[in-house]
Amino acid sequence: MELRRVVITGLGTVNPLGNTVDEYWENLKNGVSGAAPIEKFDAAKHKTQFACEVKNFDPELYGMERKDCRKYDLYTQYAFASTDLAVKDSGLNLEEIDHDRAGVIWGAGIGGLQTFFEEARNYKDENPRFSPFFIPKMIANIAGGLLSIKYGFRGPNFTTVTACASASHAMIEAFNMIRMGKADIMITGGSEAGVNEAGIAGFNSMRAISTRNDDPKTASRPFDKDRDGFVMGEGSAAFIFEDYESAVKRGAKIYAEMGGGGMSADAFHMTAPDPEGKGANLVMKWALEDAGITVNDVDYINVHGTSTPLGDIAEPKAIIKTFGEHAYKLAISSTKSMTGHLLGAAGAVEGLASILAINNSLIPPTINHFTDDPEIDSNLDFTFNVAKKREINVAISNTFGFGGHNATLVFKKL
Amino acid sequence: MSDVAAKVKAIIVDKLGVDESEVTPEASFTNDLGADSLDTVELIMEFEKEFDLAIPDDQAEKISTVGEAIAHIEEATK
Hints:
By secondary structure, chain A is an alpha/beta fold. Chain A has helices spanning 21-29, 66-71, 74-90, 113-121, 134-138, 142-151, 166-179, 197-205, 244-249, 278-291, 311-323, 336-339, 346-360; strands spanning 6-14, 35-37, 50-52, 102-107, 157-160, 185-192, 235-243, 256-265, 300-302, 331-333, 362-363, 388-389, 394-401, 405-412. Chain A contains 13 helices and 14 strands. In chain A, helix 11 links the parallel strand 9 and strand 10 (331-333). In chain A, helix 3 (74-90) packs parallel to helix 6 (142-151), helix 7 packs across helix 13 and helix 10 packs across helix 11. Chain A is globular and about 60 Å long. Chain B has helices at 3-16, 37-51, 57-60, 66-76. Chain B is built from four helices and no strands. Chain B has one domain: ACP-like (Non-ribosomal Peptide Synthetase Peptidyl Carrier Protein, Chain A, Orthogonal Bundle), CATH 1.10.1200.10. The radius of gyration of chain B is 11 Å and the shape is globular. Chain B starts with a helix and ends with a helix. At the A-B interface, helix 2 of A face helix 2 of B.
């Protein structure tokens, strides 16, 4: 079977740094933090009282009606918003395309956590009833299903649920659908809306998130010695993936080529990363192999780098193991230092950051670096604090999820 | 308009996102007001909550218009 080339022709996002792609990039390159005290609920009694929230979100701006919003969990609303932007950006003529050859593969780590929490909170033993929308609003695959209804896409449609690697797995699968000729156009990406009582308290109990309440903007500090956990983010990014030949034929604007994807598992622990980064090493190796490139071709790694004590030690080790000497020549950054950790949507917003980096020949920074960690090789170039100009031909994006799921995306300049 | 009718209409406007002028006694939830089967179940549950009553499934199935809902609730809360 001849494998087809796949290109990215539409971008959209709503995330803590912006409600458009341009606003997102502006803040990324300027090193702006999206963290602030939580506005969605009263967090005064929570150990962590801040997060990276989406600001000024108005679903009606993206074609959703009020009655739809009532039935759509916030994670679905974010999916609809970013997809609306991506579809418009692609310039696709939705009347003309073959809807049987267009699909949706979406990523969501949790799904409708807010819906689950609210409904469960209202449950009473003496009157055991839930809203008829409880199940369909909460399930993690409903955003992808509803997108297919909105756009009439009858091609491949499913949702990947691999915690913080969800969106990356979705994008790899969307890429494979086109590459293998099972579809011509795919909507893909991911969304998450976990900034609520259950999300914050749940991650707090795991001691996974930062409790730097006196200074939220410096709390997400990947690879800094005094990091104390990740900062919860939320939002979405969406992409239009297209068969290269058809994209060229219709004169589409092409942002980058999706070069390949790697997938692996740590097979180690429920939530902790393998301290030697064996799974992380493997996933990068296989991603490069899938894209048919070598380690020396890679210019930029948008790392998982969550600002957790253990993860930030394992990933640089894996990079050195994978890239050898070239590890010290390539640029690395964790844009989570600005966006926070969007959980299941992380691969989407960070994939988008990687594509924008290629298009702008600029490495967005890892902000909030104050003190080197002696356990992390300081000869690696983490692009601390300030963005750096650099021609990028190949960028890769790492995401690792609870359960030990690893996924790496490869983007190539066309 | 009775108190029951006003509350029923307010619930329908809220849940179905329709204009109040569309909520006439003859209006059918599914044919005229855009409700699907899940919306209809939710409306019945809201009526039960608002008026503190239980509408068994066999009776709920017979309520398909705004007027039928008002009549049922007025009868049940007499």
